Amino acid sequence: MARCHLHKFGGSSLADADCYRRVAHILLTHGHSDDLVVVSAAGKSTNFLYKLLELSATNQLWQEELQTLISFQQNLIEQLLSNEQARSLRERLSTDQSQLISLLSLSTLNDYQSNQVVSFGERWSARLLAALLRESGVAASDVDARTLLIADEAAVPQIRLQDSRARVQALTEAHPNERLIITGFICANERGDTLLLGRNGSDFSATLIASLADIERVTIWTDVEGVFNADPNKINDAKLLSSLSLAEANRLAHLGSPVLHNRTLQPLFDTKVSLAVRSSYASHTDFTLIAPKSSSASAPVVTNLTSVALFNLELKSNVKQFIALLDEAGLSPLAYWELGQDRVELTVTLENQKQVLALLEANSETLGVNDIKVTTDLGLVALVSADANLYRRGFARLLSRNARPLFNDGMSLVTLVPQSQVNLLTQKVHRRCAGPRKRIGVLLLGVGNIGEAWVELFASAQAALNKELEASVELVGLLSSKKALISDDGIELDGWKSAFESAATPWQYDTLFDELHQLECDEVIALDISASADLTLQYPEFFARGIHVVSANKLAGSGPLPFYLELKQQLDNRRLFWRYNASCGAGLPVQHALNDLHNSGDSIEAVGGIFSGTLCWLFENFDAKKPFSELVLEAKGLGITEPDPRDDLSGRDMQRKLLILAREIGFEIELDDIELKSLVPAELAELSLEQFLARIHELDADMQQQFVTAAEQDKVLRYVASLDNVNGKLKAEVGIQWVDNSHPYANLTPGDNVFVIRSEFYQDNPLIIRGPGAGRLVTAAAVQSDLAHICRDLLQE
């Protein structure tokens, strides 16, 4: 039966006697009787051994340092083992000390002898851990990897896989039901000379031996819990990843992960071996599992390198062939950019800088490489995910002009920035792309006709909006005039009506604001689709509590000037947004146009138009063949007017809309500063609806006379709002105007709105915006547009 598990413990996991006991406990509680174990040198032993070599090479005294190292090993033996086991290891340690003295006393050490000196650290660890396990009553043997892993010599030893596989499998067959403690970091050539596997060599030993032994799982026990979506030492809210695909882990390791090393992962490709990264200090906690094959992408990971080498060079050959040459040499660039005019930039680690430069110079004629320039004043920031394309836009928005464009290889997004900007950009990218998705709660104030249309629209737009924003925009509240439903879990859009009917409860403002405060949302946006004056008066409280507002309700924008200015002041005092495009022109982009003109440096001189679909319908259809009053009653029967037609005929609604536009342009005026010429005579204005309808014919004589007189001058009647800024003097009025048949007001589709804007840039040929200015769908669309704008503003860094 094949063995299923290999454990690897690094130096930090074997730093002292307590660490050894912890490791033994892990092996006894998390493993099997036939597990393989790969170990590094204990604590800083390898550093000590290299220091001894340096002292010897420079003819300095090394004896005291050697005694310190031997004493460290002796203390471990004494603290961990009983007399019999301890005596055996002490004897072997004494022999090792004699060998070290002989080696260090040589006038010159060749590479094999130096490697042999360094190898003692791993050999001591394997020997001691095996003895400790035997002391616990289980079968365990230490194994010198130089008897297993045979390699050809190169800059990094190249393992002979076939020979090594045969040796590993022979070993495991010869020791069934026994834990084998194998040295990491070392191997041997065919003559038995010691070779070192280089940086992170013990991790590589572990995955290599696992692949040769057909092990199912490798667990690298270290001093961290696993792989995080950012460096937890730099990002406070970095999260542990539960899983990672091998391809993602490999790219992350290539880009400088502090936990994973690129070479460690190579033996796992084309195998079924999975790799776990766990903390030996907290073996009960969650960990990261790297699967050889994964059908879904993990959460994105943000990483950085504070300094990299950037090569800028002229390249006459094919870029892909050039990159392939670097790949074959094991010097794959972290990222590269084609600049045009035969120039290419590529970035590599500082560790690989000299080797890459040597390769370029050696192949300069073959590759057509000239004018090589190297800089090291930039750092790298990268995001790794199999779904990297999903985060491209969010990442790109954070880049300043001195950042390199995003390099995208499908598995990662990479940029370079000045070293001083690396940490800040890393934090921003993590917050935008890898941190918790920002949750934006939406509160719908008004669940009638337009509210229902908005929910339908939001249901169809939500998925695309969330994807674009890389956030979660959710409906969390519904309010009618009497009942409210607030849910921190979000309200299902498919069944919102039944949920509201069954779960909504009576509400008051104080309890409403308390409930909104309890919501676990990063931001809350209230959509006021009511016509409630009482609700408008609560806007200051909404703003005071950090709640953004979208208004289809006209009453706040056209309220008393001090109230309006107070609201604007609140917006200036903190990062709050209030948009109200739907309050004038429904879905027509009137306020967008005014703001764009202002931002362009234009000066708006006049705004006018027909801002009422009802009044447009009436005057487009009035031809004096039928009394005006009959046309009003017909419109009422069709549902075109308000239940009381005087609400339309008074012109008050157009007056409010003109006030909203005037204030948007920058005029601080009151409603009464706009002259209003109502179509309803004073004697009919205060009557009951029934009395008004009985006397509505009294409108006809004046309307008939105006129509005939205007027609004699080849003009038509229109009910118009107009605002003119003449020599700094404002004239604003709402009432009947006689306009030429060719005027933009004269030929509209009944029910349309039209807005005519004259400015310094648009003088003789004014800007005209026309279309449906009312209706449930266009109003809901305007509200949705404002909501999306606020969401984008909130997510802007």
UniProtKB/TrEMBL annotation:
Its EC number is 2.7.2.4, 1.1.1.3. Pfam families: AA_kinase, Homoserine_dh, NAD_binding_3. Pathway: Amino-acid biosynthesis; L-methionine biosynthesis via de novo pathway; L-homoserine from L-aspartate: step 1/3; Amino-acid biosynthesis; L-threonine biosynthesis; L-threonine from L-aspartate: step 1/5; Amino-acid biosynthesis; L-lysine biosynthesis via DAP pathway; (S)-tetrahydrodipicolinate from L-aspartate: step 1/4; Amino-acid biosynthesis; L-threonine biosynthesis; L-threonine from L-aspartate: step 3/5. Transmembrane segments: none annotated. Residues 589-787 form the Homoserine dehydrogenase catalytic domain. GO terms for biological process: homoserine biosynthetic process; lysine biosynthetic process via diaminopimelate; methionine biosynthetic process; threonine biosynthetic process. One of its GO terms (molecular function) is ATP binding. Gene3D superfamilies: Acetylglutamate kinase-like, Aspartokinase, catalytic domain, Dihydrodipicolinate Reductase, domain 2, NAD(P)-binding Rossmann-like Domain. It catalyses: L-aspartate + ATP = 4-phospho-L-aspartate + ADP; L-homoserine + NAD(+) = L-aspartate 4-semialdehyde + NADH + H(+); L-homoserine + NADP(+) = L-aspartate 4-semialdehyde + NADPH + H(+). Keywords: Amino-acid biosynthesis, ATP-binding, Kinase, Metal-binding, Methionine biosynthesis, Multifunctional enzyme, NAD, NADP, Nucleotide-binding, Oxidoreductase, Sodium, Threonine biosynthesis, Transferase. SUPFAM superfamilies: Carbamate kinase-like, Glyceraldehyde-3-phosphate dehydrogenase-like, C-terminal domain, NAD(P)-binding Rossmann-fold domains. Residues 7-277 form the Aspartate/glutamate/uridylate kinase domain. Its cofactor is a metal cation. InterPro entries: AceGlu_kinase-like_sf (IPR036393), AK-HD (IPR049638), Asp/Glu/Uridylate_kinase (IPR001048), Asp/hSer_DH_NAD-bd (IPR005106), Asp_kinase (IPR001341), AsparK_Bifunc_asparK/hSer_DH (IPR042199), Aspartate_kinase_CS (IPR018042), Bifunc_Aspkin/hSer_DH (IPR011147). The keyword Metal-binding applies. Residues 446-565 form the Aspartate/homoserine dehydrogenase NAD-binding domain. In the C-terminal section; belongs to the homoserine dehydrogenase family. In the N-terminal section; belongs to the aspartokinase family. Bifunctional aspartate kinase and homoserine dehydrogenase that catalyzes the first and the third steps toward the synthesis of lysine, methionine and threonine from aspartate. Homotetramer. This is Bifunctional aspartokinase/homoserine dehydrogenase. It comes from Shewanella fidelis.
